[in-house]
């Protein structure tokens, strides 16, 4: 299959590793390189793309600000170094994107934020709102609180989860190597770059094991793990060199890289996940007007709900039934069962009065809703 083109994508996550962003000798941000990357991001942004950045560098920057000696850091040392470095990292991104009139929004996530559905919905809707406001979310792992057992540790897999969470259609991993090679390119003159990977086979995984890169934390193995996460959720991924100036422009111009293609698209893959893999925790029965609205592709509003059954939490999957109890669809509900019951049948302005908070307008957002799940 031919490689896609960068301008075919509408929502793009760009992952930038520490070794690209920070000069390992001076311990400073590589300002010239970053300015060029920001210009590339601004170009995509001007073209109407939603862009997100997953940026590493907090630990490396903190280490340099605190003048910590070289050598491995203990967990609490890297957490404290990240606390210092992340402030600097956020300021840097805010400045370089701000120079193009783009607002940067910092989002620090933990493993639980991406894996627990309630928290997942929170992170996802914040990212969605920032994109709607044409800001660029700048995301990193919350290294100051993440502990060894429950952390990503590498931003390759984190970026893949963020990309799938935000229904991005492309994840770009900027790396210190320009793609996946058949063998280690440094030591094997016959090694060739694989331009397109259509399926992550055992053979591809074998190449990743051999063609690791020493500089980046993740190496090629975590990049392949990231590709598995991304492609199984309908997000294409590519690995390209970030060692050149204007790396995104180079990709747009058809430069060297490895594409990992997915047969799905993020919305259908996500909907398949909602419809097929999640055990429903409750049922919402809705009126005829809401049934028509849902079938027309709209969200489910509290006003259309006539009955709430089951013990579910925000983010759980629920079955949606019509007034005759016929299954209409399934979705991720935005309220806990108790609150859903309180606001059923009520108009959106009432929700504020009843719950005392400005809740979400929808009971189930249309992106979280799959209509027509009942067996025929
Ligand atoms: N989250 C880490 C940091 O900001 C980096 C992880 C990685 O290098 O992949 O320092």
From TrEMBL:
Keyword Cytoplasm: yes
GO cellular component: cytosol
GO molecular function: ATP binding; glutamate 5-kinase activity; RNA binding
InterPro entries listed in its UniProt record: AceGlu_kinase-like_sf (IPR036393), Asp/Glu/Uridylate_kinase (IPR001048), G5K_ProB (IPR041739), Glu/AcGlu_kinase (IPR001057), Glu_5kinase (IPR011529), Glu_5kinase/COase_Synthase (IPR005715), Glutamate_5-kinase_CS (IPR019797), PUA (IPR002478)
Residue numbers binding substrate: 56, 143, 155
EC number, UniProt record: 2.7.2.11
Highest taxon, organism lineage: Bacteria
Top-level class of the enzyme under EC nomenclature: transferase
Keywords annotated in UniProt: Amino-acid biosynthesis, ATP-binding, Cytoplasm, Kinase, Nucleotide-binding, Proline biosynthesis, Transferase
Pathway(s) annotated for this protein in UniProt: Amino-acid biosynthesis; L-proline biosynthesis; L-glutamate 5-semialdehyde from L-glutamate: step 1/2
Gene3D superfamilies given in the database record: Acetylglutamate kinase-like (3.40.1160.10), PUA domain (2.30.130.10)
Keyword hit for Membrane: no
GO biological process: L-proline biosynthetic process
Record-given protein name: Glutamate 5-kinase
Organism: Rhodopseudomonas palustris
């Amino acid at each position: 299959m031919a490689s896609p083109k960068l301008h075919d994508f509408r929502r793009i996550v760009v992952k930038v590793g520490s070794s690209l962003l920070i000069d390992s000798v001076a311990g400073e941000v590589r300002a010239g390189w970053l300015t060029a990357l920001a210009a590339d991001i601004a170009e995509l942004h001007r073209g109407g793309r939603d862009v997100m950045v997953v940026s590493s560098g907090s630990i490396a920057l903190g280490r340099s600000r605190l003048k910590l000696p070289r050598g491995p850091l203990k967990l609490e040392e890297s957490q404290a170094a990240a606390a210092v470095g992340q402030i600097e990292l956020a300021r840097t991104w805010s400045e370089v994107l701000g120079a193009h009139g783009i607002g940067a929004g910092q989002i620090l996530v933990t493993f639980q934020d991406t894996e627990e559905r309630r928290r997942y919905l929170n992170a996802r809707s914040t990212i969605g709102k920032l994109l709607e406001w044409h800001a660029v979310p700048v995301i990193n792992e919350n290294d100051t609180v993440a502990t060894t057992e429950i952390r990503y540790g590498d931003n390759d897999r984190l970026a893949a989860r963020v990309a799938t969470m935000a229904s991005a259609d492309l994840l770009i991993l900027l790396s210190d190597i320009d793609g996946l090679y058949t063998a280690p390119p440094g030591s094997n003159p016959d090694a060739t770059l694989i331009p397109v990977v259509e399926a992550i086979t055992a053979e591809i995984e074998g190449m990743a094991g051999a063609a690791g890169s020493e500089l980046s934390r993740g190496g090629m193995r975590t990049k392949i793990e990231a590709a598995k996460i991304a492609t199984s959720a309908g997000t294409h991924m590519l690995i390209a060199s970030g060692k050149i100036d204007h790396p995104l422009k180079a990709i747009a111009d058809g430069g060297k890289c490895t594409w990992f293609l997915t047969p799905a698209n993020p919305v259908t893959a996500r909907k398949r996940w909602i419809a097929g893999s999640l055990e429903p925790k409750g049922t919402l029965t809705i009126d005829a007007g809401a049934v028509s609205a849902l079938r027309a592709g709209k969200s489910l509003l509290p006003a259309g709900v006539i009955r709430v059954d089951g013990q579910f939490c925000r983010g759980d999957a629920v079955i949606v039934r019509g007034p005759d109890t016929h299954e209409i669809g399934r979705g991720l509900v935005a309220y806990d069962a108790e609150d859903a019951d309180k606001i059923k049948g009520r108009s959106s302005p009432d929700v504020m009065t009843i719950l005392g908070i400005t809740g979400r307008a929808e009971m189930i957002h249309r992106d979280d809703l799959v209509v027509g799940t009942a067996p025929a």
